[in-house]
Amino acid sequence: MAEKYNLIPSYHPHLGTNVEAPDQLDKLMALTTINLCPDTAHIEAGGGNPVEVIKKYADRIKYIHFKDYYNGEFLPLGEGHQKFDQMIQVLDGIGYDEWLTVELDSYNDPKKGAEISFNFLLSFETANKS
Predict the structure, then answer these.
(1) Are 73 and 49 within 8 A, CB to CB?
(2) Considering the entire predicted model, what is its pTM?
(3) What is the DSSP letter of 61?
(4) Tell me: the pLDDT tens digits for 4-24?
(5) Which of 10, 41, 48, 71 is the right S-S partner for 22, CB 3.0 to 4.6 Å?
(6) Cβ-contact 80, 68 below 8 angstroms
(7) Helices (H), the chain
(8) How far, in Å, are 4, 43, 61, 121 from residue 46 at the CA level?
């Protein structure tokens, strides 16, 4: 149906869905041709390694959600321990030129969460401009 309307469907692994753990994602990807929208924090929360998932399914990623994670909490970028530098290296290495969004499921002060993520991206960009 998506192809009929010129849409690009992607699966988004998420806690509380049928596909949240690494083995479940591997099974889905082997049985389908659907693209992947990795949500980096949900992949980690489900027991996976976001860097390895991005490497493994690089050719099927058309959209990605960056979100940080630590100790059961979804956090603004830079507040957890996601390896965004490694993720960016993998994406750069494959010539990724699609959508990348910053997302935060919940945060007690959404505006502050957005500012923290924005400032992380600014500092990340500055540190990697060489």
Answers:
(1) no
(2) 0.89
(3) B
(4) 999 888 999 999 899 999 999
(5) 48
(6) yes
(7) 22-31, 40-45, 50-56, 84-93, 110-127
(8) 32, 5, 19, 25
